[in-house]
Write a structure and sequence with these properties.
Largest sheet: 2 strands, antiparallel
Strand content: 5-15%
CATH architecture of the largest domain: Orthogonal Bundle
CATH superfamily of the largest domain: Winged helix-like DNA-binding domain superfamily/Winged helix DNA-binding domain
Order of helices and strands: EEEEHHHHH
Helix content: 55-70%
CATH class of the largest domain: Mainly Alpha
Number of domains: 2
Shape: elongated
Structural class: mainly alpha
Radius of gyration: 24 Å
Length: about 150
């Protein structure tokens, strides 16, 4: 059974029925050394994964101006203020399902913007390149220091 609850609703409703006794087909716990599966998936979005949530925040920070005002407002509450879907629905006098759909569509839009524009991926590549250059520079400085010490001894 899933170990997480998403916004007050149990994830068990979306899980398949338990396998017959002795069967490993429906195993929910990973074996030692296996990666843990995403806890809750909603139409392609992993809602409970910390990494997924962090990515959604990064996408929101980068692409929020491209969203509608309503999408921005709701995602601001959902991602940055950590409001539940129910809390957002109550504050906006709408249904939880409507908020869920809005969040899902906005998240899909953010992913689409990243696919088309690739700004986060470009930032990641720049960061990796910069880190490699910093490591290379540190290695050059160490070699230079050793050479200077050898020259000073002779």
């Amino acid at each position: 059974m899933a170990e997480s609850i998403s916004h007050g609703r149990s994830a068990s409703a979306s899980l398949p029925a338990a396998p017959a006794a002795g069967s490993s087909a429906g195993r929910t716990r990973p074996r030692p050394g296996q990666a843990r599966p995403a806890l809750v998936s909603c139409q392609g979005l992993n809602l409970d994964s910390l990494a997924s949530r962090q990515r959604q925040v990064e996408l929101f920070e980068r692409y929020a101006p491209l969203l509608t005002e309503q999408q921005r407002d709701v995602l601001e509450l959902y991602l940055r203020s950590d409001w539940s879907l129910s809390e957002i629905a109550r504050s906006r006098d709408t249904s939880r399902a409507a908020v869920h759909d809005l969040v899902r569509r906005a998240a899909l839009s953010l992913d689409d913007y990243e696919t088309r524009l690739g700004l986060l991926e470009a930032d990641r590549r720049r960061h990796e390149t910069r880190s490699a250059l910093v490591r290379d520079l540190a290695a050059i400085r160490r070699r230079l220091t050793r050479i200077e010490q050898e020259v000073a001894r002779t």
